[in-house]
Design a protein that fits this description.
By secondary structure, the protein is an alpha+beta fold. The protein contains nine helices and 16 strands. The N terminus is likely disordered.
Length: 390
């Protein structure tokens, strides 16, 4: 590493943490810098003070559009020049690497683009950030995951896959681009059969690959979900995939499934043209979640049970990522403690301690985090300023 440093405080191997975080022109922060230890981080303060904005900034240190799925220009501070930057020093063992990302003007143009830098050098892609840190999150906006549309659950599943396979996002984007191209061709009076076949071949290849990695992740998940339910009060969930390609992969080879999907796309051109969209593929699949002990679909569980299931899924996913990539992820837990009783809050702290990585938790009341006294660093967030208080 061109700018590697040595740290005085060792961190358990393969548990990267943020040693510092700097925001410039991001959301309601003009400028903010936090100096950090590897311990858990608690951000507390009134609603609207900027706690979630700090978590969102950290989530941009991974591929994608962050925990709010915001457009890059939308997170720039207003009033401001429309640009923003996030920088962090990542501590891993005794090594520190500087990483950062931002929305910057293109020289000689009115356009802006996202840039990523690692140790002072421009990185080809945000995927390169995952070489140094993996980031997972749970936010209140995910509370409706089990009762909302299938698209929300697909995005949640793909985010889970992305944490272990950073190239997955590229596959999904390429599939969607090919599908849009096919849909546009079908709209024309006389679509070129050769062009259609080429788009369908690409969709079949990418769609089968997308379904295969989703199936693989769901297959691995059961073990980790059981571990979480056995070690604490968070219920176990059973995950399953509902989709034609996913079901076919359980019965045949990926090559056969790809060939079959390509044939079905060709056979259903007239139907898809009438519908104005492609009716079969991984973009139509759904993630099914069942409360294991009750054998009840998560959508029918109580609000409290759904929140506990989501938290258990997040903890199990963190364990899976830690084993799969040999790197403990940084966890962002936004407002999760407000819905937990004292025993579950204590159990959550113990589970985070067992995981061994750096966790960030937010809440309006410091009293919600007494189980973390002596085991975390506390910051009070008020008027777009975070001040350490412990």
């Amino acid at each position: 590493m061109a700018e590697s440093e040595r740290a005085d405080v060792p961190l358990p191997r393969n548990a990267p943490s943020l040693a510092s975080l700097t925001l410039t022109g991001f959301r309601n922060f003009t400028a903010q810098k936090l100096e950090l230890s590897p311990d858990a981080v608690v951000l507390f303060g009134d609603n609207g003070a900027g706690k979630t904005n700090l978590l969102e900034a950290i989530s941009f240190l991974s591929p994608g559009r962050g925990l709010r799925r915001a457009t890059f220009d939308a997170v720039a501070r207003s009033p401001g020049d429309g640009t923003w930057a996030i920088a962090a020093k990542i501590l891993s063992g005794r090594d520190i690497v500087s990483i950062g990302t931002g929305w910057r003007s293109v020289p000689g143009s009115a356009e802006k683009k996202r840039l990523t830098r690692i140790d002072g050098e421009t990185a080809p892609s945000t995927e390169d950030l995952t070489d140094h840190v993996r980031v997972l999150w749970l936010t209140p906006s995910m509370d409706g995951l089990f009762t909302g549309p299938a698209g929300d659950r697909r995005r949640y599943l793909d985010r889970m896959v992305l944490a272990i396979d950073p190239t997955h996002g590229r596959r999904v984007n390429a599939f969607e681009k090919a599908m849009r191209g096919r849909n546009k061709l079908l709209e024309s009076d006389r679509p070129n059969p050769g062009w259609l076949s080429a788009q369908e071949a690409q969709m079949a290849e990418l769609g089968t690959a997308i379904a295969a990695v989703r199936v693989d992740l769901v297959g691995r998940f059961a073990h980790y979900m059981l571990e979480i339910s056995e070690s604490g009060p968070f219920p176990s969930a059973v995950l399953a995939l509902e989709g034609q390609i996913e079901a076919a992969l359980a019965q045949g080879s990926a090559t056969d499934v790809e060939d079959d999907y390509r044939r079905r796309l060709a056979d259903n051109r007239a139907r898809d043209r009438a519908a104005g969209r492609t009716l079969q593929g991984p973009h139509r699949s759904d993630l099914l979640v069942t409360h294991s002990a009750k054998s009840m679909p998560a959508a029918l569980c109580s609000t409290g049970e759904q929140k506990a299931l989501l938290l258990g899924l997040t903890l199990a996913h963190a364990r899976l990522v830690s084993d799969y990539v040999d790197k403990v992820p940084v966890l962002l837990l936004d407002e999760v403690t407000a819905h937990l009783d004292a025993s579950r809050r204590a159990a959550l702290v113990e589970e985070l301690h067992r995981l061994g990585g750096q966790s960030w938790l937010t809440g309006t009341d410091r009293a919600l985090f007494t189980a973390l006294d002596g085991r975390a660093q506390f910051f009070e967030v008020a008027e777009a300023t975070a001040r350490r208080v412990d």
